[in-house]
Design a protein that fits this description.
The chain is of the alpha/beta class. 33% of the residues lie in helices and 25% in strands. It is built from six helices and nine strands; from the N terminus they run E-H-E-H-E-H-E-H-E-H-E-E-H-E-E. The strands form two sheets. It has a seven-stranded mixed sheet with strand order 3-2-1-4-5-6-7, sandwiched between helices. It has a two-stranded antiparallel sheet with strand order 8-9. Strand 1, helix 1 and strand 2 form a beta-alpha-beta unit. The radius of gyration is 16 Å and the shape is globular.
Length: 203
């Protein structure tokens, strides 16, 4: 099977990107990271990409008059790499139709909550405030809504009475890494099929 070419999008330190890179190097994901894109010139993921010898593209929103122009610039920037999949690994911007349409059902994201509950920012904090006993993470395809795309995979962690947003996030992070690696491996093996907004895993 042909290896998938993957573009990683990240806004911060890139811990999920690192986990995915390690899994690719270990041979558990049938793909290659061909480019890393960030919207922050000081993002920690840049140092990681340089260590991996992967090209980095910095495209900051402030350099463009409109969201459409910003997203078109990203499309143009990654076009030479011909990515088969876009992997959002802590990319803190809501993508719009200009970017999503050319890559429909080929953009993956991980969210630190059990969607459809607690979408948006500070998901772990939302879970703590709500008093839930179980939280987790969700890997999903991206659509034009807020964390509303078809769900690929979820995993759970307990929420303790003395948890804060930070302690829950720390407990959840290694589970995020495991879940994202499993979901991306399925994507790269062409085992994901969407029917009526539901993701089916093919045998």
């Amino acid at each position: 099977m042909v290896r998938k070419k993957l573009a990683i999008f990240a806004s911060g330190r890139g811990s999920n990107a690192e986990a995915l890179h390690d899994a690719i190097k270990a041979g558990t994901i049938n793909g290659d990271i061909v480019v890393v894109v960030t919207d922050h010139a000081d993002a920690g993921v840049i140092e990681r990409a340089e260590r991996w010898n992967v090209p980095v593209i910095v495209i900051e929103r402030k350099g463009f008059e409109s969201k459409d122009a910003f997203e078109q610039a990203m499309i143009d920037a990654i076009a030479p790499y011909s990515p088969d999949g876009i992997v959002l690994a802590g990319y803190m911007r809501l993508l719009g139709p200009t970017f999503i349409t050319p890559y429909e059902n080929r953009i993956l994201n991980i969210h630190p909550a059990l969607l459809p509950s607690f979408s948006g920012l500070h998901a772990q904090g939302q879970a703590v405030v709500a008093g839930v006993k179980v939280s987790g993470c969700t890997v999903h395809f991206v659509d034009t809504g807020m964390d509303s795309g078809p769900i690929i995979m979820q995993n759970t962690v307990p929420v303790y009475a003395d948890d804060t947003e930070d302690t829950l996030a720390e407990r959840l992070l290694p589970i995020e890494h495991v879940t994202y690696k499993e979901a991306l491996a399925l994507f790269c093996d062409d085992k994901l099929e969407i029917k009526d907004h539901i993701v089916h895993i093919k045998g």
